[in-house]
Amino acid sequence: MPTEQTTGRGWIHSVLSVLALGMASCAVVPPQGEAGQTTALASPKSNGDIAQALSQSACRSLADQGSRLQNVHAALARKGMALRVLGCPQLPSAGKAAGTQVIAVAVVVVDGERAADTVRGPLADGELLDMGSAAPHAAGGTIQRVSTASLVQPPKDSLSPDVLFNRDWLRQRMAEQGLRPVADAWWAFAPR
Q: Among 23, 155, 159, 192, which one is most buried in terms of CB atoms within 10 A?
């Protein structure tokens, strides 16, 4: 029959075992935006995504813009975001930029904490940066033409200050690489 002393030792042994397991499960994990996260953003896959988008038949005339887009992507990666090239649609025949072929882009938040130092609004990891309206959707993986409905923009005075800030910020990043914004479509850029 166990004595009080051996029962106490068993209890202490059980508590120490649980504590040891608990401490072992507290592995040191680098905070987001460091170690693996930065490597993933700078990996060739990200560069390959831009190259793949520009290899689409609709983008071949703009394929020479790849290095500029890679530079924007690299700058965004350092800030916890990624540039996504959606395609190279021809704008419809309405509006100032009628018939212009553009590069359609969106910005994805990869690390909301780092992105918060640069842009504004809701910054959930894996979500698109808030630009006040959607970028055109790729149907079947490519976008050939953009409907006039996707060009309808809310009046500027109805956009939040965060959205206006984010749009200006993106225009500046793209302009630094020689890509000019297209009026009435925050997501559309063309070479100068």
A: 159
